[in-house]
Amino acid sequence: MSIQPASNRLGLLLEERLKERSLSIRKLGKLTDIDAATISRIMSGKRRATPAHLQRFADGLGIPVSELLTAAGYLDRPGPSDLQVSVANIEEILASSDLHNPHFSIENLEEQLAHYEQYAQTNEGRHTVLQQFAEKIHEIRSSGPFIQQLKDMYERFRSKRGTAAELAFIGSALVYFILPIDCIPDYLFPIGYIDDAVAVNLVMNSRLKALGEKGS
After folding, report:
1. Domain for residue 89, yes or no?
2. What is residue 78's DSSP assignment?
3. Residue span of the structural domain in which 33 resides
């Protein structure tokens, strides 16, 4: 296998995992039921992997799908100015997976987060987060920047580290993650969790930052 350019993070990751397991591209093709030529083009950066490809790679190599999604650029940490780019990525993912959701937008996501802010401040909402967060994390069996951000947010919420407004914002993202029906239903795994990643970044990079600037 040839050395991949540094910019091709997914190709480098796949090459590294194949070497660790002493696997060839042909063998990976048999494990994932993906044509070896397709895998070669994905690794060389000549073809973009779809979420379906990444899920098969994750199953075949025994690694978290979020690690592959991040390497492929689907779960990068966007800043406030990059949120529209994230939405464009989600739309591309939906299209590549033969799914269509004309209602997905930052505006709709913000509306749902605003609704969950109120819920997270109730006893029922707090109980939902505290009782179901660990189970949800275990359910998706994933790791990576998106999941670590959620865990950090959960610890802040659980220990009440922050103002009431900050905890309401954090709680909204946690509730959004926990509940199965949101802008993109979670049963569309792994696609269903990409909007959760955008929600987390929206709260962390936009809402909490704006709140901090307002209080300074």
Report:
1. yes
2. -
3. 9-71
What is the CB neighbour count within 10 angstroms for residue 106?
16
**pLDDT tens by residue, 40-68:** 999 999 998 887 788 789 889 988 776 78
Give SS3 for 48. Answer: coil
Q: What is the C-alpha separation between 61 and 21, in angstroms, rounded? A: 8
Tell me the pLDDT of the chain averaged across its residues. Answer: 76
The reply to whether 210 and 159 lie within a common domain is yes
* Residue 122, φ and ψ in degrees, nearest 5: -85, 160
Instruction: Assess whether 107 and 179 both reside in one domain.
Output: yes
CA 122 to each of CA 116, 177, 205: distance values in angstroms, whole numbers, following the listed order: 10, 17, 24
Is there a contact between 165 and 154 (Cβ–Cβ < 8 Å)?
A: no
Q: Which amino acid is at 4?
A: Q
CATH of the domain at 31: 1.10.260.40
